[in-house]
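User: For a benchmark we're assembling, each entry needs the component sequences followed by a predicted structure for the full assembly. Here are entry 17's components. Please fill in the structure.
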Amino acid sequence: GENVEQHPSTLSVQEGDSAVIKCTYSDSASNYFPWYKQELGKRPQLIIDIRSNVGEKKDQRIAVTLNKTAKHFSLHITETQPEDSAVYFCAASFTGNQFYFGTGTSLTVIP
Amino acid sequence: SAVISQKPSRDICQRGTSLTIQCQVDSQVTMMFWYRQQPGQSLTLIATANQGSEATYESGFVIDKFPISRPNLTFSTLTVSNMSPEDSSIYLCSVPKQGTETQYFGPGTRLLVL
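Assistant: Structure for entry 17:
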């Protein structure tokens, strides 16, 4: 089955700086890569996603890049704000079937 | 987005007992997924529940421990059987967004087994 690795496990940045979270996947058949944000005690919420036919996608301060050859995708958050503090999960799936999640990154934005 | 509810939202149970968790969606969906999130951990897929057929379980999860029902296209249940403290987790259902690969998660059921 699919194996998704995520780094780093924890990340602290100063407010206004950028944050980058990286994931790798093992199954070359995976073609959909969502990112979820989970605040304490709440359900995971989709923040951005990318499909394998696209190399980069941006939504305001959030961007995701995908390197299919290397089986690697990354989340970039610019101009971080304290409300960005949460746990972020990457995931990989094939045609939207079951998701396989990374181990999560706990992001802390220091005011 | 789909409106997903789960019952109960939380429970404290004694070891050896069973708990059935319900997931209700406000629209018809072909597939529903059940995940487990152990304290401080990531989400692990337990099984995929399809209406009209048996659930498909991931490696490490078996039907005897986690029986699933899917009586219609808007509802599913997950039972955690013969519970032990190691079953203390958050259990979440998820459903695909219609016409997309995106999945929405329910609010979760927080289970503590003593």
